[in-house]
Amino acid sequence: MERVEKNRIIEEFRGMKNGKLILLSGEEGIGKTTLLNDICNEISKEFFCFYIKYFEASVDEFFYSILERIKKEVPSLRLGIVEAISKKSSDPLNILISIVTVMSSFKNILMIFDDVEKYNREILDRILFLIRSIIDSKVMIIISYDENFVNKNFSEFLIKTNELPQESIIKIKIEGLSRENINDIIKEMGYTLPKYLTDKIYNATQGNPGKMKEIIFEMKSKGLIDGDNYWVGTFEDIPEVKSHKYAALDIMNSLDENEKDFLLYASVYGKDFDIFHIAKLRNMKNDELIELVNSLVDKKIIEERSENVYSFARQEYREILYQSMSNIKRRYLHKKIGEFLEKSCDCPEIIGNHFYFSGEYERAKKYLLEAAERKFKENNYRYSYEIIKKYMEIESNPDIVPLSLMIDILIKLGLYKEALRYVEIAKNKKLENIDILIKEAYIRYNMGDYEGAENILASINENVDLEKSFYYNLIRGGIELRRANISNAEDNLKKALEIAWKIRDNSFLAIVHKELGNLNYYIGRLDEAYENYLQSYQFYEKINDYEGLARIYNNISLIDINRDVKRALDDYQKSLFYADMSGNAYLSIAIRLNLSQLYFWSGKVKEAEKEIKIGFELSEISGEQEIRHSIYSYLSDIYLLKGNFNEAIKKVEEAIKISNVTGAKYFESIYELKKREILAIKGIEQEQAANPYDPESVMGITVDLYNSLILLYSGKFKDSSELLENALRRGEGKFTFIDTIIFEGNLPFVHLLNGNKLKFIESYEKLKKKCDSINMDILYLHSFAPTYKYLKNFNPELENEEKFMVDNELMFLLLKTYLIYYNVSYDANILEKIKEISKNIGFDYIKFIKSP
């Protein structure tokens, strides 16, 4: 029986001109694996098909196994492409991307990843990177998963696939078979069952063939179906549906007791098992071992991974055997294997897990803590976190060492609130020391609670030791920087740099160079900032710190925006890749926010909305709040240009609320200014904000920029143009283009409303020249272009810009376009459009138009 999904996928594959991603969902037992095997067999007759069934593996093992499969299935590659590319890279994922890209140039490729929801986050992130890297090649990737077992990691994976071109994504859900199809399968299996029974089975399984087979196999094992495959039970005997492991159960019936016992040890040992270790645990002789292993290999129960190391041919086999044991026996075998490995293996994580599952918690704690410390030193913070969580589950009264490690890990993962919770645990247990206090100050600093961080620093002797002194000056410098006290910030950060060189710690050097880059960035020394970031990058690369690399690429992209937007977009993609691999949810969301803003202001509104939607959903899943105030603030910009002023107010008020709760005072003051601007646009009279800051400081300039917009929408065009020009002049070189676009983009508008057509032309040409120099288009150019062309006696092409704004629902921007155009053309039709839009969005247009 052939499913319609098979024909659809094969048809899509044969007709594809660029890459395709198929998200294939269906509950367990529905027939996904059978369907995928059929598709792969069909495709393989003419093209390349690589089917990857789920198996437990490290990241490198996973992609290396795919490379080995390609070499095996395409023998001509063994001494060709693979080896040639391998000389240029040691990373199996990069090698795989290069090989698939090359191969797809002369023959289409289908790659199938089955049971993807079972993979850990590290592998999921790299599968996503693989998809991103080859989506423009002639490669179709099928991601098959059970929608009933979607966890947090896979939920984030699915959200991130929305970043891909929508025309490349196809979603298919496999439904159950019809009643007639199920009856046909039962007959093909050779069973003779009464109709009331087949109806009962169909209703219980909803046409799921796997569950149907499970029921029949279970009935036969209980004697309800006789040796001739006839039903001999009663209506009440029909069993319930449990799982889809029917095929594995059937195979297990072929094992003898000796083989089963060996495999019980193997299932407890782990995903890979050393056969000689198990032989020693069971007191087996070599001849007996070899005979047994050969038998299991012949039955396709186990397969060789490397010398003496084997794994189960299917993960289901291990699960069934493991679950078939009583809890007492499982715990006994875990303890026995743990004690054996204590004497023969330098593998604290594995030993710790065996003692953990055996209930030997005191013995488990020692090894789990050691394993978490090792992974942390290897910069594998996410894995370290998973291990230390297990430690914390069994230790009700942790001492300072695991608490301190947990805090360090959470800081690295950007989970500041959770880190603060463990700080409080340490304090409540009277375990706080200078190290914990420094960490708390660092956490509060990162959360924007500068006052809280300062209070802690005030209680600490700066010169306790070099490491504490480093963090003291780093935090102090960061706080001074964010308060725009540049001189003090620079002094503290230079002290931190001097200490980092004394300690010769690459991590410290990476962090402080990044902060010095931030300092130079905030005061407008962008070239110096760029050099600082490059130095920081080199140190992060030495220690293979993905989180740090993500931050650096994100910061570099902010500077590249002033140079070449295309290069900045490339930086953002690299930053996203490293952020996803680091596991730092905060950072991944923050980068998406920056990327979305760049898309939005450069006129790619749909892409921007897609990116911020992903970031917002990820922030909800991860529970990250610290970045949400920035997201809400940015959303207010989008709603403002769309003409939904009430929603814009709601979003900026939410930003104010969150920034207040998290202690991000600097941002809270900015959002208060933005709220004043929106209220002025709504026609609610606003006073200018007080500006107690140094007029040359970043904050002093920012207040004046917002005040100029408040004056603009209050109808005070002359005052607005003077203040806006003055503030932009003072801010030149101190902000990136994306930071000032919302203000500079209003300059031609205010000049024209002030009656100065010449200045309108000059400011438009200056803005366009700047945009052209960095390969960037901006929304405001669309708004000004028709009026500029009209004044230059060109065809205004107003209808093109109207279509662009209507398609993107930018009704307030369209209204501003009409207001500008009307003030030079006095076109009665335009005036009617102004009246209509103003009525729809609630805008008082009267003071913005002049009589002919």
Plain-language structure description:
With 852 residues, the chain is mainly alpha-helical. Among the domains are: 4-173, P-loop containing nucleotide triphosphate hydrolases (Rossmann fold, 3-Layer(aba) Sandwich), CATH 3.40.50; 179-244, no CATH class; 625-683, Serine Threonine Protein Phosphatase 5, Tetratricopeptide repeat; 687-736, no CATH class; 745-852. The longest helix is centred in the middle third of the chain and has 18 residues, at 327-344. It starts with a helix and ends in an 11-residue tail after the last helix. The model is unreliable at 76-89 (pLDDT under 50).
Query: Total number of β-strand segments?
Result: 8
The helix/strand class is mainly alpha
Largest sheet entry? 5 strands, parallel
- Please state the overall shape, judged from the principal axes of the Cα atoms: globular
Q: How many distinct helices?
A: 43
Integer-rounded radius of gyration? 32 Å
List the strand order in the largest sheet: 2-3-4-1-5
User: In which range does the helix fraction lie?
Assistant: 55-70%
Tell me what the CATH architecture of the domain at 4-173 is: 3-Layer(aba) Sandwich
Alpha carbon gap, first and last residue:
77 Å
CATH fold naming of the domain at 4-173: Rossmann fold
Superfamily (CATH H level) name of the domain at 4-173: P-loop containing nucleotide triphosphate hydrolases
| CATH level 1 name of the domain at 4-173 | Alpha Beta
Strand content: under 5%
Kindly list the characteristics that best describe this protein.
852 residues, mainly alpha, Rossmann fold, Serine Threonine Protein Phosphatase 5, Tetratricopeptide repeat, 43 helices, 68% helix
